[in-house]
Fold these 4 entries.
Entry 1:
Amino acid sequence: MDLVRISEFVWEIPKSGEMKVPARIYASEKLIELARRDQTLQQARNVACLPGIQRMSYVMPDAHQGYGFPIGGVAAFDLDEGIISPGGVGYDINCGVRLLRTDYKESDITAKRKELLAEIFKEVPAGVGKGGITKLSRNVLKEILVRGAEWAVEQGYGTAEDLDRTEERGRMKDASWEFISDRAMERGIPQLGTLGAGNHFLEIQKVDEIYDAEVARAFGINEKGQVLVMIHCGSRGLGHQIATDYIELMENKFGFKGLPDRELINAPFRSDLGQRYYKSMCAAVNYAFANRQMIAHWVRDVFARVMGSSKGMRQIYDVCHNVAKVEKHTVNGKEKLLCVHRKGATRSFGPGRAEIPEVYRQVGQPVLIPGSMGTASYVLVGTKDAEEMSFSSTAHGAGRVMSRNEALRRFRGEQIRDELAKKGVELKATSWKGVAEEASAAYKDVDEVVRVSHETKLGKLVARLVPIGVMKG
Amino acid sequence: MEKRYEILEHMADGKFRAYGRSLGECLENAALALASLMWDPERIKPEIRETIRLEATGPEQLTVKFLTELIYLLEVKSFLLGRVNEIRVEEISQNGKKTYRLEAEVAGDRISPQYEIYGQVKAVTYNEMKIEKSGDGLVLQVVVDM
């Protein structure tokens, strides 16, 4: 496969064969080498062959092989001639990140750090098969699917201000529960308000570095040492089942012959099945927003109880990493609505976009990029450049470079806990084996990922955050 | 005893090969492989039985649906699979269309502190899925999203 270097961080697979558009990869030499090792580039090329794709099939700096679409893939499709694909969103619909600020400094919480983490661990259900604290009725679940975080706030989980600082204000308006299977509903009922397992985590962090003081201030990040809380999770079994269901329905309807990869299965966006998936996906997005809203509320409760106050614990933002959205973008000089798939990518709207909260409209949206367990995470800001470069998208995280087997052979959970403790990082987990699988050495260097994002202007660096306490599901 | 399954290297997720003389036996062993990514199936006491019945358009779809059912049982009924008591796969041809029908009885126990659960499989994918003849048996390869 041809791979042409356009500039230091920009690579392109020129249009050939069935490709309708070229594929463009944003990566450093180090990162492109990692992408070459697996199917990432081939998958980006396959996406470029799909009907109605606009401009280019984009690949973010943290990309790795996914199912059908690469993780870190961004593709936008014409609404009339294009498609929507569950594989372009991913199984964990609206896997995303929420970040809360506090008025506390690291020194304020040092003595109570252990207690804070232990209390959060008690309060926020995590791990496999661990149900939420609320037994939902099906009717309430339906309401959550339609109203997302709005429902949660109405129930007393958090404040209206949280909604102002959430993508889509915590509610995708096109959501419907009507086309969601019983199986998906049943998986959703016990899992609302749970963190889950795998790479999902909750961290108490401190600001380690501020790169752009003005933007940081606009986001509520004032100084080094300031304490923040990051929540990383998604739509749990409900979203996974919706993806599985619609892959099957689309296969049964359209067949998969001629597709280079079965997970590229899709439906025309305007088709009945396309719309059913889209509305169900929006509902799963809402479920995940409600999920993070509830978890954030419990974290605030714990701070109020242990520290005496949760004053100043404002939400900075909540972003989706796995989603398809209808957005306005310019293609060939013409503004049009497109269905933008971001699979393992963060929206990165620059200043002025109407979709971002008024408080951030002067500076651009906060982009939240979690690192791997126990390593740095980053806050970036969206840019106008990203509109032209990636339909306003940038990276979403670190991405694995080592298999779980190998991580299990190399590391032990308890050893990781002890090493983190030496660095002053507290760790609570539901399984030590699970901790070993998520060892930070099994992940790409997130510093390199955000450096490329910053240099290319896909998203500009604002602050670096490091963990003080880690809770792993 | 012959090897029933093998966990393979996969950068981001879970991958395994399951062996068997028939598709049913491959699926039985795939169920154990899937479980082994999350808990040790050999340690699970066979306290509870669950019956699974489903249909699919092909062996690959049957694989996805059967293994997804085990994730469903885990998440909705807190069921940890220990073994497959019985599994039957039928291939039915009707009006030139093939249907695969599966009926299985699985045994295991509810989640409890006595069992360590160390991983979570989110979904079963078609990525790199293969069902191939090998000697007088079959090999089924599956990648799952973790």
Note: The domain at 4-401+443-472 of chain A is CATH 3.90.1860.10 (tRNA-splicing ligase RtcB).
Entry 2:
Amino acid sequence: MSMSLRTEAGPYFGDFGGRFVPESLVAALDELTNEYTLARQDPAFAAELMELHRTYTGRPSLITEVPRFAAHAGGARIILKREDLNHTGSHKINNVLGQALLTKRIGKSRVIAETGAGQHGVAAATAAALFGLDCVVYMGEVDTERQALNVARMRLLGAEVVAVKTGSRTLKDAINDAMRDWVTNVETTNYIFGTVAGPHPFPAMVRDFQKIIGEEARQQVLDLTGRLPDAVTACVGGGSNAMGIFHAFLDDPEVALFGYEAGGDGAETLRHAATITKGRPGVLHGARSLLLQDEDGQTVESHSISAGLDYPGVGPEHAWLASIGRVTYLPVTDDEAMSALRLLSRTEGIIPAIESAHALAGTLELGKQLGPDATILVNLSGRGDKDMETAGRYFDLLDKGAEQS
Amino acid sequence: MSTDTGHDPATGMSSTVEATIARRRTEGGGALIGYLPVGFPTLSESIDAAVAIANSGVDILELGLPYTDPVMDGPVIQAATQQALANGFRLRHGIEAVAAITAQVDVPVLVMTYWNPILQYGVDRFADDLLAAGGAGLITPDLIPDDSAAWVAASTRTGLDRVFLAAPSSSDERLRQAVDASRGFVYAVSTMGITGARGDVDSAARVLVDRLREAGSTSACVGLGISTPEQVREILAYADGAIVGSALVKALSDGGVPAVAALARDLAAGARDIRPASAVPHS
């Protein structure tokens, strides 16, 4: 295999990707594509972004080896990439700063964003505050309830949060309303999309802003261990943190890549968000990819304890990487994720986001398969502060005795 | 394919939509195109409502297929299509509705649909079933000519119309592409935005239609925000057709079939006798 997998620039990734959008949005997508292409070639743009990452985000983020956690994973060596330590608490800031700089370049004064868990919304509100942009964040009503703390954060940062009451009132409906806003206000407004889904150029552009995760981690692991990891793991909702860490390793065939999807109550039940495991090809939110849908192509509601993974679609590059077998995607249930969340908290003093806990749970199983000689790099995409209400409720209900012991 | 004559050289079939629009222009007015979603408030009432507006002066029917993620639609149509889905709408009901309507009235019936349902049904299978039901073609709000190869092939094979959208923000090159790829008419989006009644229909619509003429269009219909006979009249002074959606859906929702038929009659009055007959500069 001599062909590079790292040079895909869209609009298509194999059979996936494209632009399935109203004509009204095409001019804005073309403008964004052109400006992004110019920015990529402009050393000043890269320098400004790197300086922001150094002085504002806190990059490079650390890697942390977690031996007490790894003892529960068959003794494999486990290394966390600490995106949870970034300003605003997750990998989302990497992308948002890039797109906010691009907004300035294009000369627009207003940004909109969709958010599920609220992490992308918080990051977008943060960047808007930093750059003096007006910011409106669309969030499903269900998510505003389960992530109330992040709603307060966004408002404190000066953003307007719109609770979306249509459809399933979750992330997919927030994206619909953000697109409707964009169609209406495209002259003044840039859409800061939060993941590697959506119409071109978003999948390639968001990946490019996130691939710093893998570029740093690849070198950090080499420096620490003297060799590449045997496997790299990440959780996958839309898939931006996973593309971010996978990308640097796509052309290292000796490194196995694993994406863990939200299995909800179980991928064999009707309540999950395991899009690649259980979905079929189709079009949603502007791209051809895999999605959860019924026979008629109506989008099926997804279910996950993690708001950030509760999405019935996935980025087209993931659908392509699954189709060519480069990345293995597996479902992790709510219970497995919550158990891993508690385990990392108790063994290492690191409380992960519920999203990232899916990657940890998958890694526990993977470590047992690969054995004690293996090294596994895990993308710890976010911290769990926002999830304390969910975690408190979950453990009080199911494990009261153990929590009090 | 040619929008000049509505005659497709590939199939030899002509577009009844285009012929209807041309006839209304020759008579000194323009075409009134009425949108209603299938399955709202129920399947049978949606069929009755479509027949009623066709009998009340609507020249071309645009039947919407309910979809879970309708990004081009405003609150009125979203609420209606969400109710239709909750009532158990299936794609085959769309085909059944077209057959039931075309059995009762002669007006051409276009189906407005987001792309994924068609993709899942099978593009060729849907084209065949729509043709068999007497349908005239598709309006595709989230399919741009760039990604439409499968539909262009299926519509060319069956002789169905394909209506693409043109927006005020579209480049001249993209307008030419929309005109060349469309058959039946080009759907000129009056304003940057989504469906729903507006007090003023943007002056951007007039500029867009002028630009579409320069791009070679002889069949340009304006939609989005049109709800009154006065707006229909204003638009048909320069466009070939006026498309009304949300206002009809609201009338159906508020007052049932009699109310939507009454609104259609009022709107149709706005679509007649605007210019002296035969004053068609671009025939």
Note: Chain A has two domains: 58-89+211-404, 91-206.
Entry 3:
Amino acid sequence: MSARPQTYFGRVWAELRTQQRAVWGLRIVVTLAVVALFADFIASDKPLYMQLEGLTYFPLFREYGVQLGWMRWQPELLNADFAALNRVADRALWPPIPYASTAVDLTGEVFAIPSAQHWLGTDALGRDVAAGMVHGTRVSLTIGLVVVAIQASIGILLGGVAGYYGGWVDVALSRIFELMLGIPTFFLIITVAAIFPPSIYVIMAILGLTGWVGIARFIRGEFLKVRSQDFVTAARSLGVSDARVMFRHILPNAVAPVLVSMAFGVASAILLESGLSFLGIGVPQHLVTWGSILAESRASTFAWWLAVFPGAAIFVTVTAYNLLGDGLRDALDPKLDVH
Amino acid sequence: MTAAPLIEVRGLKKYFPVRGGVFSRVGAWVKAVDDVSFDVGRREVFALVGESGCGKTTAGRTLLRLMEPTAGQVRFDGASVFDLGKRELRLLRRRMQLIFQDPYSSLNPRMTVGGIIGEPLRVHGLATSKELDARVGALLEQVGLAPEYRTRYPHEFSGGQRQRIGIARALALGPDFIVCDEAVSALDVSIQAQILNLLQDLQESLDLSYLFISHDLNVVQHLADRVGVMYLGRLVETARTEDLFREPLHPYTQALLSANPVPDPGLDLEPQVLPGEVPSPLAPPTGCHFHPRCRNATERCARETPPLREQPGDTLRQVACHLYDEEH
């Protein structure tokens, strides 16, 4: 038949690939995901491999085993300072950034400006900014994805029910949506964060539980549109259950526009988390995030590297997700199909 | 017909509320189907004809209980369709099915053909996953498609092929009764003939009953045993197909038949042009809905709604017109 790819998402993908900006957005998003996934192997104060007094160790891997409770440290390595051991080791292979993001070092390298040793400098506690940035990627992405996953679950369920059943169910749920829109999320977060002990999970829960209205309204509209199509009537006349009609027949035909708001949702969650960390609310002290590094620059305005690098990272990440969302919206819109 | 009919529709009504104004009050009702009664016998093809908006599709959907009726009764093989609980209704769904007009919107674009046809079997637990492929293949062959089409998606098929897939889906549960809702109207004439022949073959070989909803009189004449004519939500005439086409009684039926193009260039018929437009279903005329356009209308027609009455000497011939009252 046609030379074009067969499935719907194949067509969307082909359309997306024609858009330079969206492709760049996607590349950055994928790069960040890789950095987040392998953060421990990019920045750590433990070597990947070390030969010491004729014995071979894999401290970075062993650390995972110890954390999982599957292994113990070799007695000679318990509480070892690998940076010191490095001087007596026969051989060692270190991650590119040989510092832990949380390792406080007050021995003289406080507020070090970027150099070959500390690529992006250090902060007031001597913590390596580059290591903090790498591990901060993980925090930002986790928050973005978990928050959007919560938002999408609630939004799809409530929006789907409202759109599918219509009538008074729709009226009642739509009023709830409007009520939720009226809640000033940011101040709610500040209030809740003041009540609960600082935790990244609390932040994720609040952002997830308050930000789903956009997705719900999107899904409701799509369900209203799709449910009047004949194949939905066909499924009902075959005795297919409501739940199956909703999730098997309507949802796959309604979910595409939601991908767009999900991409924007990740960007906005990352931005919100950074804002909260910057204000020093919500995220615990010991956890290094982009926002918390940025926050340090408030007190030490001379240390430009504390503002520039995390600021740029937030900017690039949010821009990348927005470009991707923009591109997806265009790719999903058949009216814009000029190719 | 000796045996009891398969479907008995009595006094079926479906009104749609028209909301407007402050607080979405119900301002008016559209009487899409207004007091319609008919039977469909076993192995019979009963056609509902009428122009668009006359309520024939709504009647079909409502009697399958895909919409909740406003009033009325439908008996399917003795069971009262509107009184069934959820579980009983689900069981009854195996016996009554629907074929759609638009072969494009009637198939889920995200499911394979095998998924579409196999779904009814799966959700009713009628086939194990091992049997499923073979059953789907057999259904595809029954409607004249290759079993290998199972793995393809609907957009890879033409309109006629897609209509065949829709028919296979309707046949999957082994129904007794199928509502064909303008099942060939969206197809090219050459494809129409193929699909009509398929429907006819299936009806004969599987002992099916059809409620054949159409605006195309030629198609109806070809396929139907009996015909019901609808106008603005009401049934105005029912008759055996050959009787209706030979001698239409209701003035609307007469006008409808005279407007039907006959593929015979030698024939020179003067079509009877009706004055005016179809009235708005929001504000239908009083009395007989047809009286403002009827050349035989009297003052009584504007006042009194004529009931659908059996004609003397023929129980299958019913007409709703005051003209035929005097002949009693």
Note: The two ends of chain B are 25 Å apart (CA to CA).
Entry 4:
Amino acid sequence: MRKHTRTMRWLVLGAVLAIAAAACGGSDDSGGGDGGGGETFRIAIVAPSASNDLAFTQSIVDAVNRVKDERGNIEVAVTDGTFVVEDAAAAIRDYASQGYDLVIAHGSQYGGSLQEIAPEFPDTTFAWGTAADTFGLDNVYAYEAASNEGGYVMGVMGAMLSKSKVIGIIGPIEVGDAKLYVDGYAAGVEAEDPGATVNINYTGSFSDVGLASEAAQAQIAAGADVLTGTAQMVVGAVGVAKDKGVLWFGTQSNQTSLAPEIVVASQVYHWEVILDQILDQIAAGKKGGETFKIDLANDGIVIEYNDGFDLPADVKQKAEETIAGIVDGSIDAG
Amino acid sequence: MIAVVAAVLAYLFLWRTPTGFRLRAVGLSKDAARYAGIPVKRMTTLALTLSGALSGLAGAILVFGSESHRMVTDGSAAGLTGNAGFNGIVAALFGGLHPLWTIPASFLFGGLLVGGNALQRAVQVPSALILALNGLVVVFVVSSDRFRRRARMRTVAPLDDETPALAAAEADP
Amino acid sequence: MSQFFSQAILIAAVAGGIRLAVPLLLAALGETYGQRSGVLNLGVDGVMLLGAFGGYFTVLELGNVWLGLVVGVGIGAILGLATAFISVTLGAEQGISGIGVYLFGLGMSDLLFQKLVGTPLPIESFPKVPLPGLSSIPVVGEMLFQHSLVVYAAFLLVPISTFVINRTTFGMNIRAVGENPEAADSVGISVARVRYATVLIGGILAGVAGAALAIDLGIFQQNLTNAQGFIAVALVYFGAWRPLGVMGGALLYGMVNSIVLQLKTLGIIPRSWSDIAAMAPAVITILALVLVARRFRQPAALAKPFVRET
């Protein structure tokens, strides 16, 4: 036992010292290029869920990577899984102090922290999503998604495809982007078929996959043959849809790979549309003070159909008409 | 600061008042305490109430300390607190269940977590790796023999030098 | 409200409740063995997560759900042995070491998932096996007898565990070691051996619980269990360290969750009440505990490492 103790304690001491050293070393290192010049442009992402959640966080990580592939000379750092605001704030502050040119705070709960941190780093651009407030600061951009638009279009499609005329929506908590999407989808169903039943269930969690799975079962028991939902937990619901042969509409990311037989389409957030604009503006010297929105009009929101799904021509046509209607303003997507 | 004050108050209460002594006696041996005339049920209720109050205080501090003064959760068990509750249990046990020792223990554990996050950002390893490493560090620290011995002593020793309080407790029905 | 009492809904609610209860039941039963012998294992959720990833990955690569379960057993066994070593041989503080294992399991399963899988891909689930004869019983048949073999096995473990704990020598040793390890030791029972066995069983069942969860859901995600492992530990207390009680607790929890989901779906619980309704499982479990609680003591030596006085 004595020998155990000695080795253990040195091991632990060593580990702690190593971590502390790395921490100190990390923050002193004020990175490469100086703010968007000819050198590498450095982007940091701080996001609440996992980078491969096939939902919210994945949408921004994918977008940044697309921008990186397209433009080149971009370095990307990611801190994901930071749902807790305190941890995210520490991450945002750290990246800023390390000289990152653009720090993306991808979570509406990070707003308060941003408001506090941004003024301390006037040379850094902060991007806050999903939100529409830049706090009057000139180094903060805000961005959001008109998820209700894509939701509306898919709601129209869902109503047309549903034979039982019962449609189920599974949401996490009735806030923000989730609420926007759910309301949009429900509005679309209502517009296409006022007699259809829409059952909405907010499970109360963004992350409980098991609960989402059972929520889907409950929806199907109530008669639904078309389902949709938002947040990373929906992977559970998609699995049930696949088992029961019920149709699925996805949002935030392309969810076809989860169930190629039954996914009809996904509303994919192409954040790179506004990321491009932001990067251009930074290069031109403007570090913030503007809000952006991705929607059907600017191709920031794209309805990506599942090519493997046999979509009837009239449904597809109605969808395209609806998109056009929303874009030219003749249709109000709730 | 509130936390440190609370810790000091907790120590004073548990070790320097008759009620605190009775509380600890119940924890050490329910039967012996009952024999000595200590109302066990009442003490247990008191202990749980105090612990609940402190937890509530922790939660309040968490929300008031955040810029937005709002509670944000993802509906999971650790949505708002980020495992602070579990980490609190670990810190308490690290401190050998003695209020004053929980202060350095919490700082140390907090340092471990913050240092780990900084490491993640600096080296760009997945946060999951840091989490796993945290777990390993906890396991290794806790496995060291000496630590266990110290924790045991801490809960037993103070009882010896409480003779005045013991007499006071016995005189007080 | 009358909508809820339609046949289809009731069947779905009960069947769903049973499905939700199974991972909890398996993990809690495993923990019961350990706690009855005096070892508190708070790392259950971590073991479940690693078992879940192992099972998921196996099915993803090899396509066989039963192999996935076997891998769950294996992972659970390894972690069970590690836990036993830490808690029994090293005598570490059990509350803390368990949390350490949890953090490790949470992080490791996520890391492996990111590195080995990347974008989540679905896997197949357990086939439903309707029990011949029984499954044809109207209503009840569909509720109870059209599940997968894993579900049946989990519930079978309850009477088996009750029998083992109460009527075998092994069970007697478990109880003795959990109540009074000094006495047991003096009579020649190897406290360490018994605790190693129970913690190993606990680990295996937790690993199986995790694998079953992932395969049943047909997918993996970081923190898939969402702290269910901790609920399983709480269920052991709820069930007064008896398998039947634990089963009752697991079913109660599963049913309440399932019923609340149905009520929300049908709109019987309005959306404004949605968040309050999310409290229901916890509240009802506490209520049940208050109503049903009797004078059940915990195993006297729970969470106290045993050191032989010489």
Note: Chain C has a mean pLDDT of 89.
